[in-house]
Amino acid sequence: MRIVELRSDTKTKPTLAMREAMFAAEVGDDVSGEDPTVNRLEELAAEMLGKEAALFVVSGTMGNLSCVLTHCRRGHEVILGEWAHIYWAEVAGAAALGGISYRPLPNQPDGTIEIAGIAEGIRPPDLHYAQTGLICLENSHNRMGGTVLSLDYMAEVRELADRHGIPVHLDGARLFNAAVYLDVAVAEVAAYADSVQICLSKGLGAPVGSVVAGTAEFVARARKVRKMLGGGMRQAGIIAAAGIVALEQHVDRLRVDHANARLLAEGMATISGLDIDPDAVQTNIVNVRMTHDGPTAVQFETEMAERGVLFNTISDTEVRMVTHLDVTRSDILWALEQMTGLQTGRKMQV
Ligand SMILES: Cc1ncc(COP(=O)(O)O)c(C=O)c1O
Description:
The structure is a single chain. By secondary structure, the chain is of the alpha/beta class. It has 14 helices and 13 strands. It has two domains: about 10-250, Aspartate Aminotransferase, domain 2, CATH 3.40.640.10; about 255-350, Aspartate Aminotransferase, domain 1 (Alpha-Beta Complex), CATH 3.90.1150. It has helices at about 15-25, 35-50, 60-70, 85-90, 95-100, 115-120, 150-165, 175-180, 185-190, 215-230, 235-250, 255-270, 295-305, 330-350; strands at about 5, 55, 75-80, 100-105, 130-140, 170, 195-200, 210-215, 275, 285-290, 310, 310-315, 320. The chain binds pyridoxal-5'-phosphate.
């Protein structure tokens, strides 16, 4: 059966070029800084992100946690969006392992947190209060449908943070998608943050890994935190090699994923039972609501899975679809045909 995999851009399989690079990778013990391939990946990522240094980590979760633990001390508070991945989907790692508390603020539909809200959320220096240790942004914003924070917005947050002497961390699991949408170099977006985490294993298609970047001093401290978290890897060049291919070959092609997401959204806007504004789709994530007379999200997910189109529900009334390297334009057209067929069949039964 034909399968169109829209559950996540984490589902991509390594390309032949990646597998060949992995096979040929020169390796060494990375805990001692002796893996030339990891070193090359870190240098490349630092250069692309416009930062002094970078650190290869196992996952986005480990990258974000390493950064939060490096910026903050026990008792600090982190300002972030209530739908920030760091807050809702990373097992409260900073609280559990770092004694750090979260100050979640409402996310707007475009992924921003209102500037006035952040300003109010910053704790004054009162004896009773936790100290605000960090502000976290997410770009593109996963839960809000791959929406992109503008450079103007990022500059406003930076300016506010600077006024209060608070660092900014950017969860850039899909930062390259954001940069492609904004049509700027990724370093231009990362410039507004002290630290940034990018995932190699999402739209960029690598099998494993993320990179964090910042000043050389910050990265040296984050390296120690990574070791504490059990993330010191040995001949990690085997996987870093695929990360290099991801950065060198898979950034520009993210445009294709964005065009496919848009095509999917435009098609779904014409299908009964589904409610979506294609103009709201900016990158590779498409969140679709069910209309009140349409199927439930679970029903839609289950019935489409039976037809080979895979995606996930994100609430009782909403599903999420993600385009990526392993989804073609023809897959999207075929998926739309399946959806139309299902919904037409449903209407005839009624
Ligand atoms: C915005 C964002 N940040 C961080 C992560 C965590 O990445 P990982 O799954 O590699 O831990 C994800 C994963 O989906 C994500 O979407």
